[in-house]
Design brief:
The structure is a single chain. With 1011 residues, this protein is an alpha/beta fold. It contains 34 helices and 13 strands.
């Protein structure tokens, strides 16, 4: 029945993958980042500069209505008509000052908007570039062009700029400030002011480009909203600052003041609402004028819009338009990836528009070059749907018989067509796709619950139940796929962005899930409800950014709380031995969990309340000295601990006698040695002369650790997956000899532990030293929990027998084993939480910055694909995989292969005698219970992580406009996706390979006939 049990697990995995695919298609926006940059040695790709330098001031969250002369009706006394300098100068000096409503492409978060402002591209949450995981901008930008031109840049303010441009500013003119503390309204702004004016007052003007990023307005919005006296005070301060800046400007300096995005009515941002995407942009020249008097550029180049609740149209541009405009005004080439269009008013110098015509021509040529390069890249197929319209618009730019205004419009029209094509690919949420994905994940979770209920109710008749259940699921999948194709043919023209594959991946799992629920309605009982509060609490907590920040600290609390009901059983157990076992192993489990929690890495948001212990310090990414001292003893002691646990059931025999000392111990020691040598190499302990030798030694150690575990351990376990021994003696002299089977009571669990230990050796080698200590503690906690579950199961079995009329059945060991109570969902919850806890404790967080890139050099001295990627994945997700792989142990541990010799009654009105005989033989198989329950354990484990995924997905969807969506909720959703995928893979591998191989060999040994 391997195929049927695996089919059930794979069906659940398919639902997860379909839901993830649909949701991420609508939520996580992606694009390819090209590394090319514009080069121009003869100035043919730029204009003569109008200004020598620029002051670029960002007032974070400066919404357009905060500066407009025509605010919404009714206006606010706190945020309207307060910051008035831009509109006053625009009114008094219209040729020198221009005010715009700039559309900030979502996601409206500071990091993404900085990327857009400096590169002219449409940033998304997932920017796929050559250096994945690096936070710095590697594509062309105005700062790169300034550097190429030999110009100096200065910076002060929001330290986000330092993460994206770490080496672009002059060290003596760089003053970053922490941006996270929204409770602090003044520190960053005061810091900018203190460093901005000395540079402006310096007669030598040591900068060519100055960036100042104020945060006070944004922090006021987040803290108290825009309609508050604090906002008026902050905007008044900004108005005074701008007045002073204008006074200090010389004629050669251009001033640009803008908001990186807007804010909604509550002061938050991050989504695509009109208030969030409407940012102010003011451009001012104290010296040369931008445009001629009394004559406007051609109307075909200008766009206008109404701000909500206003009656006056305002000039509307794309925020990224400032990049090509600013580049050409400074005499720089336009950065390579730019999609913005030059602002016409700033180049309208004469009636013929000579300067504007040249600027638009350069702009269009740059965009066409970028699109051609993107088209030839691996992601070029994304442009297929739009390429014909792009080529048609480009062909129009070659026309020469147009009137004068047409010559301007043809270039701007091409730019708008190109921008629209790219925006449709990269920078739009698709709520419908997100909703489809959530629907699939939600209904799939209920269907998984129905599978759990049905499989548990079937008990040892799970094969019959699967015959009935899977047949209906298969028909549901087929019918749903056909329905999806049909719906796509009918609705494709009404639902842009959703194709036949999307509809198929929606209706196929949806219909099969509905059929599953109808065929096997989910069971609701007190036992079920009592085991879910922690899961429900864990899931709902993802709607809180504070919980997500501190999930690594809350997880051990939930984990210890989850074993309390089992520990309480130990207080009332009928036998002293069981009381001591339950309480003793529960205490050991809790102690290991607490010891694991000592290891921490800190998220940025945890601020001063978190102290790094995974490393020696927050600035020194090396292991603590205590960990260095414990590394080898831990690698030697962990195999001994496994042996001690196996010895409890006398199953430290068979393959365990060879595997643990000859495979596991050398593998763990070699893995620890690699990281010790890596530390010595990185710290220069032996000097540079020894460095080449140390690199050879450490690489050899890592390869040896992995080879021993994978090849040596895999071959040995596959050949002899049995932890049994036989002892023969004469019970009575002169009579038949008695044969005792050593390890019989744990005949299924012990060989699976050996199988699991192969993964332990691999993951152990990929983890850094502190992570290895944590994995060792997690292994002890896992084995302790298995002993607790087994002992609680014994208590339940005894209580069940006493509740019957014939408690003497307890004396029949064979009967008591046959009636061994099944696992419960409450047995799975601590194991699933242990997976979450070990992920955090091994030095990881739900942030890209926590990825331990050192592991990329585990088996190779240099970065080499695919091995570097594989080892990074092992380091990051290996601990989760290891715990998922242990899920079947809940069903296998201390389960003996006892034959069910009770004849089964023939089924009423049965006409299929052969099938009756087949079922009877299966019921007599020694592995029927462990096969069914290992699958049940896998379903429960997958359901736990699927529930967490649903919680993170719903929170990300609902809070997509939240300040922290791209910094907190979206990364946690991605971690949830990885958690589900790893859980599914671990369960499928465990049931499909580990359980099947063991039950096959044990079954043959104890009388199961080959089918």
């Amino acid at each position: 029945m391997l195929s049927k049990r695996l089919a059930l697990l794979l069906w659940i995995s398919f639902i997860h993958i379909a839901g993830i695919y649909l949701f991420t298609r609508g939520f996580l926006l992606t694009r390819l980042s090209l590394p090319d940059y514009t080069t121009c040695s003869d100035q043919k790709c730029s204009l003569q500069p109008l200004h020598k330098r620029a002051v670029f001031l960002i007032i974070d969250s400066l919404r357009f209505d905060f500066v407009t002369p025509d605010p919404p009706n009714p206006s606010s006394q706190y945020c309207h008509n307060v910051l008035t300098l831009p509109r006053e100068l625009t009114a008094s000096r219209p040729r020198h000052s221009h005010l715009f409503n700039a559309y900030a492409d979502p996601p409206t978060t500071t990091l993404q908007r900085i990327k857009g402002l400096t590169t002219g591209s449409l940033p998304t949450f997932v920017d796929v570039g050559n250096n994945f995981g690096a936070s710095s901008i590697t594509e062309d930008s105005i700062l790169k062009q300034l550097s190429i031109a030999g110009k100096k840049s200065a910076f002060m303010g929001d330290d986000t700029w330092m993460s994206v441009f770490p080496d672009s500013f002059e060290p003596n003119m760089t003053f970053p400030y922490d941006s996270f503390n929204v409770e602090d309204l003044h520190t960053v702004d005061e810091g900018v002011i203190n460093h901005l004016f000395p540079l402006l007052e310096d007669p030598k003007k040591p900068f060519d480009f100055l960036v100042g990023h104020f945060l006070g307005v944004d922090h006021v919005g987040h803290r108290v909203g825009p309609d508050h006296p604090s906002m008026k005070a902050k905007l008044t301060q900004m108005n005074d600052v701008l007045k002073r800046v204008v006074d200090l400007l010389d004629d050669d300096t251009l001033l640009v003041v803008l908001g990186d995005h807007g804010m909604d009515r509550s002061g938050d941002h991050g989504g695509d609402g009109v208030l969030e995407t409407s940012a102010a942009l003011w451009v001012y020249s104290k010296g040369p004028a931008f445009s001629q008097a009394h004559v406007s550029p051609p109307s075909g180049l200008l766009r206008y819009t109404h701000f909500p609740k206003t009656t006056v149209r305002h000039r509307h541009i794309q925020q990224i338009d400032i990049l090509p405009t600013l580049s050409l005004l400074l005499g720089l080439p336009i950065p390579y990836n730019n999609l913005g269009t030059v602002i016409p008013e700033l180049f309208w110098r004469d009636r013929k528009g000579t300067e504007l015509s040249r600027a638009l021509e350069l702009n269009a040529a740059q965009i066409k070059t970028y699109l051609d390069t993107y088209r030839s890249s691996p992601s070029g197929a994304e442009l297929d749907d739009s390429w014909q319209s792009i080529e048609a618009a480009w062909a129009t730019t070659k026309a020469t018989s147009l009137i004068q205004d047409g010559n301007f419009v043809k270039f701007s029209n091409f730019n708008w067509v190109a921008l629209g094509a790219c925006r449709s690919m990269w920078a739009q949420f698709n709520p419908l796709l997100m909703g489809l994905g959530l629907a699939v994940l939600g209904i799939g979770l209920v269907a998984t619950w129905s599978a759990w209920s049905g499989l548990k109710a079937a008990e040892n008749d799970w094969h019959d139940w699967l015959d009935f259940y899977l047949g209906r699921l298969l028909r549901g999948l087929a019918g749903g796929a056909i329905l999806g194709v049909a719906v796509s043919l009918l609705l494709s023209s009404y639902t842009p962005g959703i194709d036949a594959l999307d509809y198929t991946l929606f209706f196929a799992p949806l219909l099969s899930s509905v059929i599953a629920i109808i065929s096997s309605p989910p069971g609701i009982s007190f036992q079920t409800l009592s085991s879910t509060p922690i899961l429900i609490l864990h899931t709902l907590a993802f709607f809180s950014n504070s919980f997500t920040f501190w999930e690594d600290r809350i997880a051990p609390f939930l984990l210890v709380s989850s074993i309390v009901p089992s520990a309480l059983v130990g207080l009332t157990a009928p036998l002293g031995r069981l009381r001591y076992r339950i309480l003793g192993f529960s205490i050991l489990f809790a102690a290991c969990v607490r010891a694991m929690a000592i290891s921490t890495v800190c998220r940025e948001e945890q601020g001063p309340y978190c102290h790094v212990t995974f490393y020696a310090s927050s600035t020194v990414p090396s292991p603590p000295l205590l960990v260095l001292a414990l590394a080898i003893p831990a690698a030697l002691g962990l195999p001994y601990t496994l042996t001690r646990f196996l010895r409890i059931s006398r199953s430290d025999v068979g393959v365990a006698r060879s595997f643990i000392p000859l495979i596991l111990r050398p593998s763990l020691v070699a893995g620890a040695t690699f990281w010790i040598v890596e530390w010595a190499d990185s710290a220069g302990i032996l000097g540079q002369w020894w460095a080449p030798l140390l690199r050879i030694v450490r690489t050899g150690m890592a390869r040896m650790a992995l080879s021993i575990a994978i090849f040596g351990g895999g071959f040995l376990w596959w050949a002899v997956p049995i932890c049994l021994d036989f002892e023969s003696r004469e019970a009575v002299p002169g009579q038949n000899r008695q044969v005792n089977v050593i390890g019989y009571a744990n005949a299924f669990g012990s060989p699976y532990l050996i199988f699991w230990s192969i993964g332990l050796g691999v993951v152990y080698a990929a983890a850094q030293l502190t992570g290895q200590i944590v994995i060792g503690l997690a292994t002890i906690a896992l084995l302790s929990w298995l002993e607790v579950v087994d002992s609680v199961r014994d208590v339940r079995s005894i209580e069940a027998q006493f509740a019957k009329a014939t408690p003497s059945a307890l004396l029949n060991a064979e009967a008591s084993t046959i009636t061994s109570p099944p696992i419960r969902f409450s047995d799975i919850v601590p194991l699933a939480l242990l997976g979450t806890h070990v992920f955090f404790s091994t030095g990881h967080q739900s942030t890209i910055s926590s990825i331990q890139w050192k592991s990329a050099f585990l088996v190779t001295a240099n970065l080499r694909y695919p091995w570097s990627a594989v080892t990074v994945v092992l380091n990051s997700l290996g601990p989760l995989l290891l715990i998922a792989l242990a899920a079947p142990l809940l069903a296998l541990w201390n389960r003996a292969p006892v034959m069910n010799t009770t004849p089964s009654a023939p089924r009423a009105n049965s006409k299929d005698k052969d099938k009756d005989m087949q079922v009877e033989q299966q019921l007599a198989a020694p592995d029927v219970q462990v096969k069914g329950e290992s699958t049940l354990a896998g379903v429960g484990y997958m359901a736990y992580y699927a529930t967490l995924l649903l919680g993170t997905a719903v929170s990300a969807a609902i809070l997509r406009r939240h300040l922290m969506v791209w910094k907190v909720f979206a990364p946690r959703f991605m971690a949830g996706v990885l958690g589900v995928v790893v859980a599914d893979v671990g369960v499928v591998l465990g049931v499909g390979i580990g359980v099947e191989r063991i039950t096959y060999r044990v079954g043959r040994m104890f009388g199961k006939k080959d089918e």
